[in-house]
Specification:
This protein is mainly beta and 280 residues long. Helix content is 2%, strand content 45%. The chain contains 1 helix and 26 strands. It has one helix at residues 2-7, and strands at 16-17, 22-27, 30-35, 40-46, 48-51, 57-60, 66-69, 75-79, 83-89, 92-97, 103-107, 113-115, 124-125, 132-138, 143-149, 154-162, 171-175, 180-183, 189-192, 218-224, 227-232, 237-239, 245-246, 256-259, 265-268, 274-276. The protein has a 7-stranded antiparallel beta sheet with strand order 13-14-15-16-17-18-19, with no helix packed on it. The chain is flat, with a radius of gyration of 20 Å.
């Protein structure tokens, strides 16, 4: 079975590269993981597989159970009942079991599970990265996004929309005064960039709407309707041709998954050039 799966690997349209040595693939409506040598290291048995920035694979079965594998593809945690998992920080997740009304904090490094008490200072609190997090709080008029540290000190207020967490030390924001771009953990603008304003995303919501984040020194941002650019950490922008459709969320190993006009898949480099032709 492993040999047959390896042979059809190149034909799988749902395949996406997540880590340096592993890829997620779909076979017979189930997801598994394959290594760079096309060897199946995790058989296709899950309904969904996602991967965090630290290369941990989070898998869900048909009953809603959760199975977590470390970067070496070793199973380190499982819960065989319906549950949900929410990102809290680099190695921490908020765990909610259907059979229990409590919330728990799961640490992937220590594998400790402790009861979690959500902060009452904010309407909602997102994951801390490098000691700071995006929060949704009350102000004098209504609800608004802010950046806060772990001690509750507000670093930046009056954010109209943002990404959910810092990546590569930066967070995408657009401010109530019309400024937009990327700020550092001190709330200072490092890159100013005009983001396309989708009216459906305006105003604070429980889930932030700006999915612009840096990985390997580059971010994909929308600057106008149907206009996308590759942005480096100096603020230099490279226009992505209209013939290229973005499929992957970020660059991994210098490549981004794309789709061409023929509906085949390939990979683009940070210069917006097709590095691997459309053949999948």
């Amino acid at each position: 079975m492993k040999k047959s799966l390896a042979l059809i690997f190149g034909l799988l349209l749902s395949c996406s590269v997540f880590a340096k040595s592993y890829s997620v693939f779909k076979y017979d409506n189930k997801y598994g993981v394959i290594d760079s040598n096309r060897k199946v290291v995790l058989s296709p048995q899950y309904e969904k597989i996602s991967k965090n920035d630290k290369n941990y694979f989070i898998c869900y079965d048909t009953e809603g159970g959760i199975y977590i594998y470390n970067p070496k593809m070793e199973l380190i945690y499982s819960i065989q009942e319906k549950a949900s998992l929410s990102f809290f920080s680099d190695y921490e997740y908020i765990l909610k079991k259907r059979s229990d009304s409590k919330f728990y904090l799961l640490n992937l490094k220590t594998l400790q599970v402790s009861e979690y008490q959500e902060s009452k200072e904010y309407i909602y609190e997102y994951g801390y990265v490098d000691g700071v997090a995006l929060v949704l709080e009350h102000n004098s008029k209504n609800a608004a996004y802010s950046i806060a540290d772990r001690d509750g000190n507000i670093v930046l207020r009056n954010i109209e929309q943002a990404d959910i967490a810092f990546s590569d030390g930066l967070l995408a924001v657009w401010m109530e005064d019309g400024q937009s771009g990327f700020v550092n953990k001190n709330g200072e603008f490092v890159i100013k960039c005009k983001f396309f304003r989708n009216l459906a995303d305006e105003g604070p919501k429980k889930y932030p709407a700006l999915a612009y984040f840096f990985n390997e020194g580059f971010a994909i941002v929308q600057t106008e309707e149907r206009v996308w650019n590759i942005l480096d950490k100096k603020g230099n922008a490279t226009l992505i041709p209209n013939s290229i459709r973005i499929v992957g969320g970020c660059f991994l190993n210098g490549l981004l998954l794309i789709k061409g006009e023929t509906d085949k898949y390939g990979y683009m480099n940070p210069k917006a050039e097709v590095a691997i032709p459309y053949k999948f």
